[in-house]
Design brief:
The complex is a heterotrimer of chains A (about 425), B (about 325) and C (about 170). Chain A has about 425 residues and is mostly helical. Chain A has one domain. Helix content of chain A is about 75%, strand content about 0%. Chain A has 22 helices and 2 strands. In chain A, β1 and β2 form a beta hairpin. In chain A, α4 packs antiparallel against α15 (about 275-305), α16 (about 310-320) crosses α18 (about 345-360) and α18 runs antiparallel to α19. In chain C, α1 (about 1-35) packs antiparallel against α2, α2 (about 45-65) runs parallel beside α5 (about 130-155) and α4 (about 85-115) runs antiparallel to α5. The longest helix of chain C is centred in the first third of the chain and has 36 residues, at about 1-35. Chain C is elongated, with a radius of gyration of 20 Å. Chain C has one domain. Classes of the chains: A mainly alpha (about 425), B alpha/beta (about 325), C mainly alpha (about 170). At the A-C interface, α2, α3, α4, β2 and α14 of A face α1, α2, α4 and α5 of C. The complex binds sodium ion (2 copies). One sodium ion binds near residues 108, 112 and 154 of chain A. Chain C: It is a multi-pass membrane protein.
Chain lengths: ~425, ~325, ~170
Amino acid sequence: MTESLIGFAAVLVLVLLRMPIAFAMGLVGMVGYMIETSYRGAISMVGRLIIDTSQDYGLSVVPLFVLMGLLVNKSGISRELYQVSNAFLGHLRGGLAMATVVACGGFAAICGSSLATAATMSKVAMPEMRKYGYADSLSTASIAAGGTLGILIPPSVILVIYGLLTETSIGKLFIAGIVPGIMGILFYLLAVRFTVARNPDAGPAGPRTDWAGRITALKGVWAVLLLFGLVIGGLYGALDFWPLHLAFSPTEAAGMGAAGAFLIALARGSLSFAALREVLSETATTTASLFSVLIGAWVFSNFVNIAGLPEALQGGVTSMGLSPWMVMAMIVLIYVVLGCVFESLSMLLLTVPIFFPLVTGLGFDPVWFGIIVVVVTEISLITPPVGLNVFILKGVVGDVSTGTIFRGVTPFWVVDILRLLLLLAIPGLVLFLPSFL
Amino acid sequence: AETKVTVSTWLPPTHPINTQMLQGLIDMMGEATGGEITGELKHGLAPPPAQMDLVMDGAADMTIIFHGYQPGRFVGTKLIEIPGYEGNAEAASVAYWRVHEAHLAQLNEHRGVKLVALNTHGPGQIHSNKTVESLADLQGLKTRLGGGVSADVGAELGLIGIQVPAPKVYETLSSGAADAVAMNIGERTGFKLNEVAKNVYEMPGGFYRGSFAVLMSQEKFDSLPADVQKALDDNVFGEPASRMMGAVWDSHDAKARAATEATPDNRIVTASAEDQAAFAEMATRIQAKILAELAEAGVDAEAARAMVIQDMAAN
Amino acid sequence: MPRILNLVFRLPVALASLALFLLMAMTFADVILRSAFNAPIEAATELTRLLMALIVFSALPMISFQGHHIAVDLLDGLFARFRLERARDVAISLMCGGMLFWPANRMIDLAERARSYGDQTEYLNIPTYYIGWFIAISAFVTAAALILRGGALALGRDPEQMVRHD
Ligand code: NA
Ligand code: NA
């Protein structure tokens, strides 16, 4: 236990010194493993994990879903999504912010990453909201918060990695994310209403679109529906067009999604060779940095594993006589605290190998726990001081302070906590849909 | 002084390889050495093909490997996987150890580590979504095959190989991305095949078997006191451990068979006499191919196969 | 110098992009062939593995040189106030580069071991030590890239600007 805690502290210090998270976890894990076993054992373990992780078949979903998101982005789908939402909601007070939230939810259905969702939507929605005199705090916050839905509404890179780490069905995890994701959209709409109720100037009503305009705008949605249907339908083997029965593994779903996005972008003439090159190399570099973190995290988790942390935690819970729900409450609290500092993937990789055996040992459902982990991870993305989605907004928009964004995010953060409590109290909200699989 | 042995495993925590075989081995080691040796399972340190390297370099002290996951490295171990042996996993595992001593050890395929035990799971059968009543029904079935000889058998049967890691078998079958999976019947419980592969097509003696080895770090073994080494070598390692593990496979198979029989919509279809004869012919071709590989590696392959058959019959 | 850097970092990224495109195309083809013609690409799984290693380890040197690893900038303000940013970044880069040396070296041994055992892929019988060597070399290049980055930062150069982006 002591060794593991020292290890955690060392990782934290190195990370705060701005050592890349992959290297901080890898270094501490390697040295720790060396102390627990031997020099040769530790170095070999690290070497093998570098070789094997990069060739893990299951992990090939990661580059493919990232590629799909970037291709979709290039094909102008994000703009159309926003226009549709706007046509229906724009005339309400705070309507453009509401439209932003809904468009984020729609984009999340084809993009596996929260950061990408936030980055994409900020380019589309921010200028529009500025044009209609929205307060920067509300417009940036609606994008930062709406963007977090990227990892909850399927497809989701984070759910994929949780599934691979814990051997939980990725299909079940995906479908389990749908209801909490829709709840997220509704709750964020409430947060927008609350904001404009307190300060009507923050979100003036935009122009109303007539029904003809709305129907026209709806035509822009087909590509999203098609891709979402292809990926999710294929995962469930529900695409049965005789004689073609399409059923995919998660990797194949990601590959089909990426290929579908590629063909759509090609058909729309929105993909030049240069743009394709840019998308591919961005996906490749993102993949390399994600895999580095994965390897580092695996090395670190091997260290705490060999140092006996999982057994110590299990023993601690038993000897202290904690009830399962007390343990769950503590774990959620730890996540919220860690979420202040850590970025989503690192947080997941650092904690899941340790908490998962404990949680399932106490009888909690692995799919439900996965969704809870993703929801707390989402919250971490907008929790100060390190909220990556907030930083993304700051990066894209530029002339707005992170303080302003964090202030605007507060109501969104509050409804997030409410949603988390609801999901904790009523596991059925998560487990209802996957129970039909 | 008490020595703790770290046993690395990559199988799901509730799998009998963990709960009965490796734990059983730890208990046997403790008993044989008067409590000198204790052990602890460590899950998920590395993927299956990395396990031998982990033990060779001392990142863990012991592990279990499935030979089929490292194509090219193991040839001799295919001997026990070829179809055509009659008998349960215990008899096969004991025969496997003996034939290893007599014929296979000279290939030195486990060089760099200490070989603790060898075993094979029970007869491998075909579990499918679709109804399979004859060999002909297997044609074109998209089937998840393990490594090793099962791939050769699949080709001979006209199966279409789908490669997915074992933990993904359930969702691959439930989505329909695969129609069937080749496994010993015992795996039906762990992989919940009673829900997604309701049909078992059974060939007496199995379509193939699957070869496993338990390995120990040579350095770790050498570091033990001489009397402990001797106690382990005499009473645990080799035939006793192999027999114990084979027996676990058998009880695993028996339980799953009972569960399958008790599940109303599950069905076990045993191959008809004609189909058995037809498969025996295919088996001859597979035998010839694998035995040729063994012979090329320098084993008296025919004699080795004869020894397994004889030993299993005598057990 | 810039020409060499371009060659060492950007060429592999182009290779990674190509591998990624192939991965997408092959997955698509595999699913269609399997669903429509009951004839999947049997070697798809091992080709996927191979392409993944190509993607990750071709892109790694570039992102390491340019500092695009995921990191936390929580204390940036503090370091800036005491003008310690550069010293910190140089030290961290050198440390990261240094620590990679041992595993990289070990991976050569592991690849050679795989060669001595005759390890190969299941369908295409590709010797696995090829890929082991490739990963090990890429790890060495990554280590060198990080050390180079440390040096560049120490001299007040911006690694981001030293390699062309287009
Ligand atoms: Na998503
Ligand atoms: Na945070």
